[in-house]
Known about the structure:
Blueprint: H1 15-32, H2 44-50, H3 55-67, E1 72-74, E2 78-80, H4 86-109, H5 113-127, H6 142-156, H7 162-182, H8 192-204, H9 208-229
Antiparallel strand pairs: 1-2
Helix pairs in contact: 1-3, 2-3, 4-7, 4-9, 5-6, 5-8, 6-7, 8-9
Amino acid sequence: MTLLVPEPPLLKASDKTTSATLVYQKLRRDILNGTMKPGQKLQIDQVAQRYDSGINPVREALNRLSAERLVDRRDQRGFFVPPLTLIAFRELVASRCWIEAIALEQSILNRTKAWEDEVITTHYRLDREPVRLADEEGGDNSAWEERHRAFHNALVGNSGSSWLTGFCHDMMDHAERYRFASMSGSYPRRDSREEHRLIMEATLDGSVALAVERLTAHYRLTLQQLEEQTRAPMPGETETPSRSPD
């Protein structure tokens, strides 16, 4: 049974809140797509200038992103874009496999026609959108990323738990940073269209074990390829990282 969460009342935002939200959205986008480089210090005045905003909205946006672990807040040093490390990515992939396996299983068990239609529709749109690597066709892969996110969100979006769905969305945000970082002409080619098709088919067939197996293999292949590609420290990573970022 789908978990029903009452809609919060609409609040009239103040100018400060609106400005902070705009900064948050723009900075969040630039962190996820790598415009703001891993390990880069986020100087408050420079961020304010970049997004044509005041200091207070920038502080509010940075604190919000820090709570989402998309910004590192270091005592006496300020705010930084979190580094990308294989240690952290391995942990992230393992966590996605655990949590999304449950979410996908529950989505299949709670299946409805509306949910099945959403899975089919989002897959169709993803399948028709080509991947554009950084040095190909202008390098703007935002349309594919949007459709890719919609498809994966649809797969786990019928679990019946807003908490579980929220965890899946948060982990996808962090995984997106690694995907952008690895998008280059030298990135190992893979048949992601076929991978997504097989995941969709197993899901719609109601084969929980096979759908989960294909989804987790999809994530593990991304990790495997990045491990094979990476011979030097990743952006923002030191030679011998002692721990994964908080």
